[in-house]
Specification:
about 375 residues; alpha+beta; Alpha-Beta Plaits; four-stranded mixed beta sheet; 11 helices; 15 strands; about 25% strand; DUF2066; DUF2066 domain-containing protein; signal
Length: about 375
Amino acid sequence: MRHILLALSLAALPLALPKLLPPAAAAETVGDLFMVRDVAVDVTAASATAARDQGIQEGQRRAWAMLVDRLTPAGTTAPTLPAEELGRMVEAFQVQEERTSAVRYLGRLAVRFNPTAVRAALRNRGVAFTEIRSKPLVLLPVDQTSGQPVLWQGETGWRTAWGEVDAAGGLVPLLLPMGDAQDVSAVDAATALAGDPAQMQALAEKYRAGGVVVTVLGPQNVSSTIHRDGGSPETFTSPVPAGRETALEAAALTVMGAIDDAWAKANIVQGGAVRTLAVTVPLADMGEWVEVRKRLSQVPTVTGSRVISLSRGKADLELTYQGDESLLRTALAQQDLGLSTGGGTPTLRYEGRRPTSAGTAPAAETGTAEPSATPAQAPATGR
């Protein structure tokens, strides 16, 4: 089996071809919401070239279905697209693995879709979806198949399985911790199972995450508990398919799907009119102002912002957004922006780590219009 990142001969394809992802670009898009990885294809045709060309087309169709599944609640069917529309929607692809014979092509592909085209295709067909992405969660895979819980002691099959799937690509990105001395001393298997809030918070803060998910592999099922900052633990179970190695990867994908589905159901943005909201942004210095603007551009429900006034210590903005105010608040929070609407003009505060200060407060300006935000590439989403 070959691992390749090189141009394919696809002259037989009737569609305009998307560009191939070079290795550097592929690395940069890890965690991209609109990048679908590990798309398996197995095609037989009259020749190896025909099989490969058909395999690429089939991979794009499957990737589209997988992307819609990612952005929508369970049970949503991906709309069937004309071949020309689907071809225009694909920005790039990567051949992760391939194997060929005289008449057969087996491959594993990564396909990157154009976010603007995806939004248009779904909205035009009345498919409700969400791009609101959760802060990442630190993943603690505990293996309890033999009775004794194992977390850090060696590379368990359960941890290996999580390393084989695209855990950082969904609506709720999952991060495997390094397992260094600091991690091992902070949380062991017993404390992970107990879900001590202080320890969960400390681990999340180390990785700048929004919480921790402890997923426990047992003989028959997987029990997963999500510990989010400021929220109550959420626990759910999922079955372990028959087999072992591939079954563990399938179990990991099932857990990922359940976490993403719960998030999607709670954060669906229904179509409708764009709304506006005037907010005041307290500012400590110019560095904070730059950080707020950058993070606003990465909030998928915010379609634009306009600076009403900018003075020393604060900015007044008018935001345009889709969805209701509750969804706006959730989306902003994923970018460490806190929205308070109680009493007077709503306030938008930066609640993350202090950005590097430029040393001066922002200069006063009035009537400056900011362009509509552009799609973010990774890991946060655009609009």
